[in-house]
Structures are given as C-alpha cells and as structure tokens.
Amino acid sequence: MNHRKQMICAALCLLTVLGGTGCGTSQNTEESAAETEIQTTAAAESAETAPAETEAAETEKPEPVYDYVHGDEGYFSLVDSGLGTPVKLQTDGTCWVVSASTAMESGALVKHGKTIAVDALELLDAVYIKERTEGWFLAENLTPEDFGGWGWMVTEAAANGIGSFILTETNDYENCSPEQLKDAIRQNGAVSISIPDRQSAKGYFGDYQTINDPDAKPEHYDHVVTIVGWDDHFPKNYFRNEASQDGAWLIQNSLSEKYAYFWLSYDTAFLSPYSFDISEDYGEVAAYDGGKEGQIGTGDETAIANVFHHPGKLTAVGTYTVSDGQKFTIEIRDAAMENVLCTQEAEYPVKGYHLTDLETPQDVSDYAVVLRFAGDAPVEGESVSNSFISYRAGAEAGQSFVLLDGKWADLSLKETADALKLDFTPNNACIKAVYAQ
Q: Residues 384, 91, 115, 316: what is their CA dihedral angle, to the nearest 10 degrees?
C-alpha cells in the first residue's frame, strides 16, 4: 500500500480506535473478549453436542486436544534464540510506535549485539512535533495517542534523529518473498507489519492464539505488530477460519500481556513490513525535508543536490532508495557545485532509508551533497490533507536542486516542476548530511 492510501487508512483506524476496537483496544478489553470468545465457543459446542440421557453413549464426542509442538525443521524464533526483546503494552492507539520501537531494539540486538531501550512515546513525539513547519500534523481536536499512524512516519521522523539516536536504516520488504523476509529477520531482527485485527478471525486452540483473515479489506488493517519468528508446519486447523496451508508467522503483540504472542497464518496478507536500525554513534543531522512522499525522474539517471551552510565534520549521507537494488553515487562538492571534493558509490538490496558512511569524512562549511540515482530520486512531495491529518512540505530558493539538461534547476520553482512534467510540487530533495559526534 502506498503512503497516500495509508494516510486514508489511518483516518479509518481513528474511527475504529474511537469505537473501541483495533489499535485502541485496551489490554483488559482484549483479554475479556478473548475469554468471552472461549466461553461462548465452549458453550456452543456443549449445546450442540449435549445428548439426550438415553443416547449419551452413542452421541458423546471427546474434547479436541491441541497439543502441537514445533520441531526444529522450518521453525525459528528470535525469542527462543535468546534474541527476544521486552514485550511492551500500547497506550490507546500507539501500537505502531510500540512495534517500531520493538523492531529498533531487535535490530540493535541482532545486528550489533547491543541491548538498547527505545521509548515508544518518544517516537510518537518525534513524528508529531508541533514546533516546526513541515511534516505530519493532526487536527486540533485529535491527540497522537488516539489517532495512530504507520511505520513510514517513524522512518521520516527518525531520519532526523530521536533523542540520542539517529536512524541508519529502514528496509521496506514490500517486494520480498517469504523466504527473503525470513532471511532478513535472521540478519536484521524483528519486522514491523500492519495486520487486520478482527475478532471474527481470531481463534484459541489450547495455549495458542491465532489469526487467519485471508479476506480482509484495506480498511481492516488497523493494528501494527512485530514478526519475531515463524513455523512452516504450524497446523492449518489451528485457526478459527481453517487455513489453506500449514505455516504461520510468530507475532509479538502489544494489546495484552496475557496474549503477548500469537500466530498469523501464511494465508493472511500483511502490509508495510519494515525493519529498523538506529545508532548513537553520530552527531547532528542537517536536512531540509520533512519526509519522503514523492519521487522524480529525468531518465536513466536522476541527479539531485542539497546545498548546506553548516560547519563541521561530515561523516555520512542519508537518503531514500525508491526501488530494491537501486544504485547511486554520492558526491561532496563546493557550494557552487563545481568542484568535487570526494565521491563514493552506494547500493542497497532493499528499498527504504539508508545512511552511508563516507570513506573519507570531510571538514565542511558551505558545501553541496549531490546524489546521482539510477532511475528516480526521492523528494518530499506535495502537501496533502484531510479532515484528520495533514502532511506539510515546502522548499526555499537555494536549498535543493535537480540536474536538467546539464544545468542545476531549483526545486522550489514552479518552472522546475513544469520542466519535469510533474503533476505535483516536488519541494526539497531528500538528502541528510550527518556529522561526527
């Protein structure tokens, strides 16, 4: 699902939150619903199978036994591997930042062997900062805890820094196969996903809570959780709506401490699969963009540039890739964009946000970062809004540029958008200049 459609779904999520379901369900409500479901099902089964006294021996059926135990083949769990992170409970509609913070902690542990703590509410505050002019803003009558959001918003905010942390990578696994996703979880840690959370699709089988919702529509995707493992042989009949195949993802949840983990059938599609990596090893971030909500292209190669007036030791450059395996070249130039100070190639297998360390850090003051992309390049995109939420973007003269017919054209000018034949305003180029501590 693209980010524009996700914004619409976020508004729908708000309605479900205010109605007492979806992301906003409290742990007590969820546990109560689960227990009620179990009791109702048991009562129904009892009523259906209760025989007349004279026919008891003939009609009585044994209680089903749910005693499945996974084997080693086709099974993996970060928790069982000693790489689990603490279960966190959400407050109101904060499942999406709880999931993102869990994935960040998991990424640090799996990739770097570091145990860190990320405050989900600090992520929430970073997304909805009021003391700025660009980014995401809620209507005055809404609060961030109630409204919700999605993982890409966390990426856009964290790329500019969250407390002492800075985002170094978000991998967007939208185009990856299940096997590729499994490899990614082993290498990069837990993956945040959006799922349908309808009670009608939930089942309780012995110690297992399960979800199978293959017919879910976009508006049903109102909850964000974290994949922490899988079992290729998880029984297909352990779902209220029996699955077409064995196998399920192991999910770490935030709705209830009692049901901290459940199994999501391979039949159920999920959206917005992201892993996150953050670091405390960098200093300031210089940037103009409030996020990546658009892209522009000038052919086989698209060159964009930001001119910065910020002294210090430039140690890394951050940007977004718009396709899997996209290549780009980094050039550090003088402010006039005439002399090249250093150049470096980069390529990442999965699209998303990526921070590239410079092989030779540069002492800079007034300078430009030029990125030459194979294919399209990332930009802020235009401002959009509905009655619940708005995304505001803008660009000032002299900040961001695109190379057109051998000349640098200012992205803040309407004639540049016209020359690019765009039906939207591109605003700033998505380039982060990251300094040493």
A: 10
Q: What's the start-to-end Cα distance of the chain, in Å?
A: 37
Domain 283-435 has CATH 2.60.40: no
**Where in the chain are the domains?**
3-42+68-275, 283-435
CATH number of 3-42+68-275: 3.90.70.10
Dihedral, CA of residue 24, residue 28, residue 30 and residue 31, to nearest 10? 170
pTM tops 0.85: yes
pLDDT, tens digit (0-9, with 9 covering 90-100), for 182-226: 999 999 999 999 999 999 999 999 999 999 999 999 999 999 999
Cα distance between residue 423 and residue 187, in whole Å: 40
Give the whole-angstrom CA distance, residue 394 versus residue 132.
12
Phi, psi of 301 (to 5 degrees): -130, 135
Rg (CA), the chain: 24
Q: Please answer whether residues 291 and 391 qualify as being in contact, where contact means their C-beta atoms are separated by less than 8 angstroms.
A: yes
> Who contacts 281 (Cβ-Cβ below 8 Å, separation ≥6)?
437
Residue type, 128: Y
d(CA 217, CA 221): 7
Q: Could you give the CA distance from residue 13 to residue 148 in angstroms, rounded to a whole number?
A: 7
pLDDT at 40 over 80: no
CA angle at residue 248 from 242 to 249, to 5 degrees? 140
Residues linked to residue 355 through DSSP beta bridges, in sequence order? 318
